[in-house]
Specification:
Blueprint: E1 3-8, H1 16-29, E2 34-39, H2 51-67, E3 75-79, H3 85-94, H4 99-103, H5 106-115, H6 121-136, E4 141-143, H7 149-166, E5 178-180, H8 215-224, H9 241-254, H10 258-265, H11 270-297, H12 299-327
Parallel strand pairs: 1-2, 2-3, 4-5
The protein binds adenosine-5'-tetraphosphate.
């Protein structure tokens, strides 16, 4: 089976963008692959973070993976910082990655602007750590949302460079991974601005629906979300980004086809549609929230999942790390 690697940062509550752009796709395809899903807590400190909540947030994300349907028969769940090889491989990659490759990254530029003078070296280095995450496991495929495509391209550039400098055509050091971006859900947009992606770092809670939001919160956010004054609802009108985004959310959460939703909603007013969308969202999130409560009631179980996950993942990571170090000419530890 082909191997899949993906992850989410524990930088706050997971939202519908993370779910529809990534986790739901992991779950739908997991039986076809051998999967590794990590909670990327080392990435979480590339922006200012709260030490008091980092560990709890990490557990929350791992529990949400299980709650969303990640199946341990097909998938391994682990925490990035539990495996030091991620940092070590990052250092090796740092020394072959030109700084200007990193300065070109859109996510870096966007996040750096927000932070002014406090931008950390870690934020610039984020994509190199991500390359280490992927390449340590010889992943074939990386299922992510559209926003991560540029980072996977950079991972591929690092592979090409390492193979070129330290490997041979016959014996490449690293495997070249491919992004796996599903068209549906690849870019879920903010509820307050249909031209911006839904994001954990948006200061407005009203801009996103979190997977653990109560039905009342969901209703309130959808009631207040940005719309437009045009009558009738339609997909694909570039003048109406909010309309397209909300209809897309309804399509994905209700499980209906785009054609069915277009027909159902074409004559609706916003008030009526918002009720329909709220109900579909609450209904879709209900089982995830129930599963999450059940997982959180048994902390011992979650710990054992993460312990076993670490053991399995670390064995693979250490073997890749030795391979890369040997290719780069390092002596074997005595
Ligand atoms: N709006 C989105 N639409 C589709 N997919 C999305 N993803 C994130 N936002 C959207 C996908 O979710 C996965 C995990 O993302 P992450 O939390 O590790 O990093 P991120 O992309 O930085 O997520 P956020 O919410 O946007 O956080 P901030 O605000 O910190 O940047 C990835 O597969 C991502 O593509």
């Amino acid at each position: 089976k082909k191997r899949v690697l993906s992850g989410v940062q524990p930088t706050g509550n997971l939202h519908l963008g993370n779910y529809l752009g990534a986790i739901r796709n992991w779950v739908e395809a997991q039986s076809q692959y051998e999967n590794f899903f990590c909670v990327v807590d080392l990435h979480a400190i590339t922006v200012p973070h709260n030490p008091a909540t980092l560990a709890t947030d990490t557990y929350t994300i791992a529990a949400l993976y299980l709650a969303c349907g990640v199946d341990l028969n097909d998938s391994t769940i682990f925490v990035q910082s539990h495996i030091p090889a991620h940092c070590e491989l990052t250092w090796l990659f740092n020394c072959v990655t030109p700084i200007n490759w990193l300065e070109r990254m859109i996510q870096f530029k966007e996040k750096a602007v927000k932070q002014g003078e406090n931008v950390s070296t870690g934020l610039l280095d984020y994509p190199v750590l991500m390359a280490a995450d992927i390449l340590l496991y010889d992943a074939d495929l990386v299922p992510v949302g559209e926003d991560q495509k540029q980072h996977i391209e950079l991972t591929r550039d690092i592979v090409i460079r390492i193979n070129d400098q330290y490997g041979s055509k016959k014996k490449p050091v690293l495997k070249l991974p491919e992004p796996l971006i599903r068209k549906e859900g690849a870019r879920v947009m903010s509820l307050t601005d249909g031209t911006k992606k839904m994001s954990k770092s948006d200061p407005s809670e009203m801009s996103r629906i979190n997977l653990l939001d109560s039905p009342e919160e969901i209703q309130k956010k959808i009631k207040r979300c940005k719309t437009d004054p045009i009558k009738g609802l339609e997909f694909d009108n570039p003048e109406r980004p909010e309309c397209h985004n909300l209809l897309t959310l309804y399509t994905l959460l209700s499980g209906k086809t785009q054609e069915a939703v277009a027909a159902e909603c074409q004559d609706m007013g916003w008030g009526q549609f918002k009720t329909v969308l709220s109900e579909a969202t609450i209904e879709a999130l209900k089982p995830i929230q129930q599963n999450y409560q059940a997982v959180m009631e048994d902390k011992g179980y979650l710990e054992s999942v993460l312990r076993q996950g670490r053991e399995k993942a670390e064995a693979i990571a250490l073997s890749t790390l030795s391979r890369v170090k040997a290719a780069m000419g390092y002596s074997t530890p005595l």
